[in-house]
């Protein structure tokens, strides 16, 4: 079976829209007809052939790891799936056998492979994934946001790793993940939710996603403004660092209250300098490094928040392109003005 | 009433053994006849007039914050204490009124004052402390280790902030607090407990306190040796950083397994460089900044571990001096060879 | 100083509106000018001289334990309060010295006394309370609901003893506490919140407080209806039993899913028969007995939920009487039709 | 392939030692050569054809669900196992697809089947089990206790569902599971561990397993004796109810302190009468219904406790019979004098 796909064929910037053979199904896999894909920030190094991508990827590769679709065929040893099921894809291929996998921490599996990075992905008309990475929808109500459950799950895990009800929450960075984090915090009873973001376009999205206050990190006395917006000169209960900017990490540690919590999610491109004594020890804080989502606890929470309409992702879904228009999609996402939220692709 | 005390009278190295007036009792305080004191690492900057001490202290000051004694007199508004009670002293004067104090986090009170730093201490024959900082012993069985319950409490909190039973535990730094942490981990079912310490003298103490393996940080391939001793190439379940050495903090983050836990207790004297992406986020770890002890949850746990003889502090109590010999005591503790464990003073 | 008060002067039904001496202030107490009181279900046995009341009370007694007011005078040994402060009252006089008090469980203090039961209460113009039982408001925004923070705190603790975000929640019994529990669950991200209540009047209130579905326990197949409304044939994630009815407790245990949580709050008047094997062990559930509120963690959460307007108590505040009209108030609350929510008294 | 097995061929007391065909391997299963089996209390209703057994079992059935052995053959769709591996068997065949299975609660899977009850078991020379129910040993050090890891896991989960370090622990009932619970509590830092058991033989075993005090439930003032042995008139921190006796459950609820924890593990044969108000709500306790073990978190803890020799099961392994002698084995276990600990069978 041939299909259309976005394939990274050779080193260098860009990718190609090609006709290629649909991947073959192994016994423990399922074949999906992709319904929607979306672009993650971590797809940019692949497209631009920068950062970690050149060392890690084996080309050619169909990339893309946020996608959903209908089951076309099930492998002979799978259980629980049938043709016609609609599934979203957990991008982390966990081994299921290591200590982490057998102790409730599949998302940090020692033998992790990532779909669309270490294995063929979903910027294509068809995709195969291990059945253990497929999340079956119970009905069709979430089809349109099916590719967003993976990144939304990041935000759900990042925010809810500790309870936030009645707590002040600060979200640093309002890229798609930060925008999602705002919505999750609001839906979970956080009061107030304050966001910080440099892009004016995204500050507006942050408001639409429910932030009680949105601040520009370049404004003078940003720390004071944060504390005022969060309602306590003593500091913020919970800080969700989604940007990876070294300045934002510093702001996270300075703004959190004594005994508060910091989630570290945004990936800095370099090592950071931390005031370990003043900001970590003397404040008695907890720092959670968050990657991926709890498999599948987070998925159930994500589904519930979406189905109950506690979270509405619409404002964050700013752009949709056909698969063929992928170059436009990547340019929108990587433009310095950051005039986008989440960017989707339709095969 | 006059008494003997070690008083920091003027700026500069050292202190003086003086006759002075015993402090006056306020209504919410109790007066103690000090039975034992012990020297904390944080008493060294006071003695040597280095680091944070010159900025913070108002002289003259009787210092020392690890002590115990018998109640001589109780303030008019205190409840629950009577002459003759034996008490150990919680060195943190929490306000009891701030958010942290009213939410189970008195140890990071926003208005904290430290006995022996911001208020008169216990290197003296008598001392007054707020009644709310006194821990009453139920019998006399722990008198001899009464001044050690405060620092032991640090180790109890640092180790037990998350459960350790059946987990591998790595203790970095075997000063008195590290030695205590070894004993706490062992008594709490950790398997195995591995310690790392540069001083040969203290490595022997670490063995006596129950470490299953003790390593020299200067030995080649220390990370590999740690992993081997901890029983898993994947990393250590729980790392207790008690040294404050930048290299040790790095070792902590490198040796902990994906999804594991790091306790940050040892105070570095400078800012640190951290690989936030690789070592915190991608590993999905939890970092706890620990200062002080939970008031009074930790005290109850500490008492129970001592009374049941699950922990025996004897090997760590290497030196005892009379109050008058305090100069000797400080020299032992600050000698570069680190040929001591805990150093006690008898008034 | 004389004042008006509702006093239980002698055994038997009813109470008397009297002039009496305002209570004297001890050093660790504060004197309040009562602004609002409200009637708790546990005031009914006092008024009707039934159940536990005759054995426990020493008459004469001014009763009432839900109230708020302005500080008129502060005892000499109190800290943190000043004339003019507005406070709500924690009705549990905890000793502060027992194991529970010193381990984060003041609400189950071994030496507990209850204001308005074991000590003079707040159905009066003035009241004295230990300063450690006073919760200071940060501004005047919550004055009108100041007496409701105590019972709302029960609901906050009962619901939030485990996280509810994204979980289905079943509230059994929609008396004032059940109504509050509905609001708390909604504000905390529970989806859906289903309530069960026999009184048609209260079922309407339950809807107004935000329940997604409200059921009549006498309807046929109530268990099936609950499961349908909660969205899973497998059972409910979280059950909050607020009624104390033996049938409701049974329904709680039957409706909760395997591995789910039950909060036991409503007080049955007799012993219960439980299928310990089938309903507790084989289902692998957790049961939390809840009494009172965490002091003061729950108060901070309660304040935050009210101040952010995440919770609006208005629909539940159905009746307000002057102190003098207390007989009417008690009759409304104890009428078999249960045509009321919360009943307030204005001194 | 034929094999020897204990087979329940027809209704009525007893079973038969037969030659039968070894079970056929499905693609997701592994075939084991059984090395050791052990008898669980829940095997008695099968042998005696009493209680739940007649309704549930489909005969003929090879029963037995505690066993270990060497992998002889692996199904075509399994991953992670190879001929020669040594495995212990998790007796709960969880579906892996239901809400509970995908949310860290496989042990209460909605579609649970039990090996040796709903599927062929391990009182035989060979057995097949789903690969997802096999726990691979990392070396041969635990072969002799390989069949005991399943029941020991029950005790590990029952005791460690909340931390016990430094807490008083009361174990009610010293059958094999109670004996194991004593060892787990001791290894986990509980102080003291008090056991209650009617059989004198088992009281001696309880001492050998490490109980600090062992009491006879028929002795007068047993509640007072328990509190004295546990070291606090206020009650016990943690009660582990392993007997299923209604009197023991009552004792559990009466002896636990305010704010303490009760584990419900022993299965009563009838419904129980509980003082829900006094013993659950007013005390503010937590009750955990425990069945099975966390899959596979508990298995890792169990392995660690055994490998480190923190737990020595030897005293509890009182009888070993050949498979052929199974009638003797069942008689020892069911004798009214209860003069046994764990009973093993060697194929």
Structure write-up:
With 347 residues, chain A is of the alpha/beta class. Chain A folds into two domains: 2-152 and 293-346, Alpha-Beta Complex (Quinone Oxidoreductase, Chain A, domain 1), CATH 3.90.180; 162-289, NAD(P)-binding Rossmann-like Domain (Rossmann fold), CATH 3.40.50. The first copy, chain A, is 25% helix and 27% strand. Chain A contains ten helices and 19 strands. In chain A, the strands form four sheets. In chain A, strands 3, 5, 6, 9, 10, 18 and 19 form a seven-stranded mixed β-sheet that branches. In chain A, strands 13-12-11-14-15-17 form a six-stranded parallel β-sheet, with helices on both faces. In chain A, α3 packs across α4 and α3 (149-160) packs across α9. Chain A is globular and about 60 Å long. The first copy, chain A, starts with a strand and ends with a strand. The mean pLDDT of chain A is 97. The A-C interface holds A 160, 163, 165-167, 187-189, 191-192, 300-301, 304-305, 307-308, 310 and C 160, 163, 165-167, 187-189, 191-192, 300-301, 304-305, 307-308, 310. β16 of chain C pairs antiparallel with β16 of chain D.
